Every structure is written in structure tokens, then in C-alpha cells.
Amino acid sequence: MEFRSLLLLTIMGFLIVEPGFGEIADLAMNDWLKTQMETIMNIGEKLKYVEKYQNDIEALEARLNGTVEELTEQKAEVTRLKKENEDMQTRLNATEEEIDKLKQSARNAAPKIAFSASLSNSGEIYKGPSTEKTLIFKRVFSNTGDGYNQDTGIFTAPVNGLYYFNFNTYGYNTHVIGALLMKNGAHQISTYDNVSTDGSDSSSNAAVLKLVAGDTVCMQLWENGRVFDNLNGHTTFSGFLLFTV
């Protein structure tokens, strides 16, 4: 509105000082004034359009500024979401790595291998002296991993590792009492009690052996030895895998 008023005043100023105004003789004063007012009215009408366009431009500029602000906010939100997504991806990668480690650990975990058996699975039994010295422990309490063969008395290592073995022997002193722990046919440790007059004896022993898959471990009688067992489980043989190597 200020712009329109200023423009009208400027035009009227030009009209007042128009050259030759005092010399007009052919036109009547009323006609001249009418012409000038029409000109002013036309200019006023045009000023309305100018003001309207100016208002439209200002409104458009306001909407544009609002759009810029909205786009700025959206850009900030996109940046925030992108950061959250990167953080989630980082955590996801870490979780996947941990799962891979757990899977690898599970693959590398020692298999479950353990057995325990006693000599007699029914009644009383004396073993020895005999030419077949390998003791076959028939009463199997457990055989996880199927490493022990109750038909042969031999334990065969399924995997490379350190294995713990223990055994107990019982007998009457009319004969040598005891047995030898054998690895691949070689003597490792033993129990032993010579012939005496004290009736009976029991003894035990244990060892940790390093085995590779396929190595065998069993118990053998001493030369001229004898052991005894019944359902009380006096003479036993047990072993299990400590860890793989």
C-alpha cells in the first residue's frame, strides 16, 4: 500500500509541473482534468495488479522459505536415520562375527568320549592265569562316543587328544594280583601285589595319555596273574577325553 501511494504522489507531481500547463488554450479545464483523472485511474488499476503480484511473490517466498526449512529438517532426519542404520549394521556385523566364533568353537569343541566298565556282568569271575592276558570288562556302565569295545576289552581313541584312564584290580593272594595299562601294546602303568598270606588285596592306578585317533588302550594281566570280580565291581576300567590336541 505504501508503494502505491508513493507512486501516485510521484505521478501527480509530474502532472502539476507538466510543461505548458498554463498555456493550454484549446482544451477546457474540465476536459483536461477528466483526461488526467482517467490516466490516474488507469495507473491505479495497474498498481492494484502490481500489489497483487507483489503479495503473491511474498507468499511464494514465504512458502519457499517454509519448504527450505522442511527440507533442512528432513535432511537432518535422514542423516540421523543413516547414523542409526550404520550403528545397527556395526552391531549386526559384531553379532555375526560372534556367531561365527561360537560356530567355530562348537566345531572345534572336544567330542564327548567317556567309558566305564567292570569285569563281571554276572556272578563271580576269576581271570587268569591264561595265555590271553587282555582283560575284557563286560559290565559296561557307560560308553559315550563308543570308544570302548566290550567284546575285545580294547578302547580305541576316536580323536587326537589327552585322555585320562584309571583302573582298579582286586584278587586273592594265591596268585599275583594286578594288571598293566597298555597303549598300542606297550606297558604304561600297572597295579601289582605278589603272592602272600594276607588273603586279598585291591589296588588302583591312573594316568593321562596322549593319543592320536586309532591308538588303542587296554588292560592286561601280569604273567601268572589273576584278578577277581563280581557284581560289586571290584575290578574296573574307566577313561575319558580331557581335551583334543
TrEMBL record:
Keywords: Coiled coil, Secreted, Signal. The keyword Transmembrane does not apply. Residues 108-245 form the C1q domain. It is found in: Secreted. One of its GO terms (cellular component) is extracellular region. Residues 1-22 form the signal peptide. This is Complement C1q tumor necrosis factor-related protein 3-like. The lineage of its organism: Eukaryota, Metazoa, Chordata, Craniata, Vertebrata.
